[in-house]
């Protein structure tokens, strides 16, 4: 099974929900992960969530049915970084 990755952005002052800003598999997924590491962006491994996010068009807000799962990711990131 190929590695998959997705990246989210959430600008609370300009967006109603997080947006998928990058997604891919194989070499593209590795590039997303490498860029996150290089920029000290927290990474959480969740294959089911990545599968769902991969179905969202780039630069589109996630659908409401994904809010709970993504909120759990943001909660993890907040706890890990205290930001």
Largest sheet: 2 strands, antiparallel
Order of helices and strands: EEHHH
Q: Which whole number gives the mean pLDDT? A: 92
How big a fraction of the residues is strand? 15-25%
Low-pLDDT stretches are none
Q: Name the helicity range.
A: 40-55%
Task: Kindly name the structural category.
Answer: alpha+beta
Number of helices: 3
Query: Could you give the distance between the termini?
Result: 34 Å
Shape: globular
The total count of strands amounts to 2
Describe this structure in words.
- The protein is α+β, with helices and mostly antiparallel strands.
- The chain contains three helices and two strands.
- It has helices at 27-38, 47-53, 67-81, and strands spanning 4-9, 19-25.
- The protein has a two-stranded antiparallel sheet with strand order 1-2.
- The longest helix is centred in the C-terminal third of the chain and has 15 residues, at 67-81.
- The model has no long low-confidence stretch (mean pLDDT 92).
